[in-house]
Amino acid sequence: MRHILNTKQFSKEDVANILERTYKMEEQCKAGKVEKLLQDKIVACIFFEPSTRTRLSFETAALKLGANIISAENAAANSSSYKGETIEDTSKMLNCYADLIVIRHPKMGEVEDASKVSDKPVINAGDGANQHPTQALLDLYTIKKEHKRLNDISIAFVGDVLNSRPLRSLVPLLLLYPGSTFYFVSPKELVLPEDYKKYLVDSKVNFVETDSLEEVLPKIDVLYMTRVQKERFTNLEDYEKVKDSFLLKLEHVSKLKKEAIIMHPLPRVNEIDSVIDRDPRAAYFRQAQNGLYMRMALLCYCLNL
Ligand code: NCD
Question: Which residues form the Aspartate/ornithine carbamoyltransferase Asp/Orn-binding domain (predicted)?
Answer without folding.
Answer: 152-301
